[in-house]
Design brief:
There is one protein chain. The chain is mainly beta. The chain has no helices and ten strands. The protein is 0% helix and 26% strand. It has a five-stranded antiparallel beta sheet, with no helix packed on it. It is globular, with a radius of gyration of 21 Å. The two termini are 22 Å apart.
Length: 168
């Protein structure tokens, strides 16, 4: 028996028939959300809304994304929960960005920390921010910049089996 590499089914009931799916553009299949919602933070940690606007001269919104990652793991003193840094890729939609970030100086955390921010937009830059726990209203991302050495955002590890690495 041979498998036809050009085989493709157009059966609407076939769960593997995802129009537009490629190895580069992995669209979600039936029953899966478009995006994975982030896990909730422990209730005692203050989460602040951070906003940013990206536009070119003349008011044209810029496309792109922003990578954000805490510079270290932190522990909630109330629940004992440990939060491990994970890179978050936030899409800039119509030149706007909104994200909920835990406050970096929350008194319920074991010690203060910072966030590494990498703007993947035309003219983007890399910088560190601090999110205060006692501020009110949406906070502007670029008002939170602090003078600190930028800590590179670590790419997520990808585990795979490869014949080149001794796998199957």
């Amino acid at each position: 028996m041979t498998i036809d590499p050009n085989y493709h089914t157009y059966d609407a009931n076939d769960p593997y028939n995802i129009p537009g799916w490629t190895a580069v553009n992995q669209l979600p299949g039936p029953g899966y959300p478009q995006e994975n919602p982030p896990a909730p933070y422990p209730e005692s940690i203050t989460v602040q809304t951070v906003v940013a606007t990206y536009m070119a001269e003349g008011g044209q919104p810029l496309p792109g994304s922003v990578l954000i990652q805490a510079d270290r793991r932190y522990r909630d003193k109330v629940t004992g929960d440990l939060v491990v840094p994970n890179t978050r890729r936030l899409k800039v939609t119509n030149g706007a960005l909104t994200v909920g970030l835990p406050a970096t100086d929350d008194p319920d955390l074991d010690e203060p920390f910072l966030y590494s921010v990498h703007e993947v937009v035309p003219g983007g830059r890399k910088f560190m921010i601090s999110v205060p726990h006692d501020a009110t209203g949406p906070l502007t991302l670029h008002d939170l910049v602090v003078e600190a050495d930028y800590k590179e955002i670590q790419p997520p590890r990808i585990y795979t089996l490869s014949h080149r690495l001794g796998g199957y």
